[in-house]
Design a protein that fits this description.
10 strands, Pyruvate-ferredoxin Oxidoreductase, domain 3, alpha/beta
C-alpha cells in the first residue's frame, strides 16, 4: 500500500488535488483507493490535511495516515508552522514548491524535489496562489506510478469550468521544472500494492504559496 498525506491551508485545494490523483490512480489500476480528509479549524487559511491510500487490492484501513510514504504540502511555510513531516519514513522524498533552490534545504535523510509552483501557475495563466495543479505535477515527476497524461486529463475534467487548460499547463510546467536532490528509482508496485524498487520507503511532496486562495483558478 502507498500512503500519501497532503497538507495545505483551507482554500488551497489540497483535498481536490488528492482527489484528482486518486481518480487517475484508480483508472491506472490502483483499485484500492481510500481518502480520509482531516480538518483543523474551519477558518480559511487554517492548516488542513487529507490522507490518500492506494493499493492494487481492497483497502480496509480507513484511518488517517500516521506513517506516510509521501507527504504533499501546498504551502512551504507550513514547514515551520506545523509538523508536516511527522511519521515520514526514513529515506522519504520531499517535493517542494518553492523559489529557493533544492540545495538550500537540509531535511536529513529525506529526498527533495522542488519547483516554483506559485510562479509557474501564473505563467500558465492562473491567478497567483493557485498551486494545487502544479503540486500534482511535482508529485508525478518525483513519483512516477500513474501515467502523467492520465493525470492531466483528470485535472482538465476536475477544473472543466475553471480554466482547465491553464490548470493542466501549470502541472506540465511544474513537472518539467522539478529539480531533484537525488535520483528516484521507482519500479512500480507489486500485486499487493506495495511499492517496489528503490523508493527508500517513502516520498514527500511539498508545494509553497504565500497565502490561502481558491483552488483551480477563478
Amino acid at each position: 500500500m502507498i500512503q500519501i498525506r497532503w497538507h495545505g491551508r483551507g482554500g488551497q485545494g489540497a483535498i481536490t488535488a488528492a482527489k484528482i490523483f486518486a481518480t487517475a490512480a484508480f483508472q491506472s489500476g490502483y483499485t484500492g483507493v481510500v481518502m480520509a480528509p482531516t480538518f483543523g479549524t474551519e477558518r480559511r487559511g487554517a492548516p488542513v490535511f487529507t490522507s490518500l491510500k492506494l493499493a492494487k487490492e481492497k483497502i480496509y484501513d480507513i484511518s488517517p495516515i500516521e506513517a506516510p510514504d509521501i507527504v504533499v504540502v501546498l504551502d512551504h511555510l507550513l514547514l515551520t508552522e506545523a509538523d508536516v513531516t511527522s511519521g515520514l519514513r526514513e529515506g522519504g522524498l520531499i517535493v517542494l514548491n518553492t523559489p529557493k533552490p533544492v540545495e538550500s534545504y537540509d531535511l536529513g535523510a529525506r529526498r527533495l524535489a522542488v519547483a516554483d509552483v506559485t510562479a509557474l501557475a501564473v505563467e500558465a495563466g492562473l491567478p497567483r496562489g493557485v498551486v494545487n495543479s502544479g503540486a500534482i505535477g511535482i508529485l508525478c515527476r518525483a513519483f512516477d506510478i500513474v501515467p502523467f497524461e492520465l493525470v492531466l486529463a483528470e485535472i482538465e475534467a476536475e477544473f472543466r469550468t475553471k480554466r482547465p487548460q491553464a490548470n493542466a499547463q501549470a502541472a506540465r510546467l511544474a513537472y518539467d521544472k522539478t529539480a531533484l536532490s537525488g535520483s528516484v528509482a521507482v519500479a512500480g508496485a507489486d500485486g499487493a500494492g506495495t511499492v517496489a524498487g528503490s523508493v527508500d520507503a517513502g516520498l514527500v511532496a511539498v508545494a509553497g504559496d504565500p497565502g490561502p486562495t481558491t483552488s483551480g483558478g477563478a
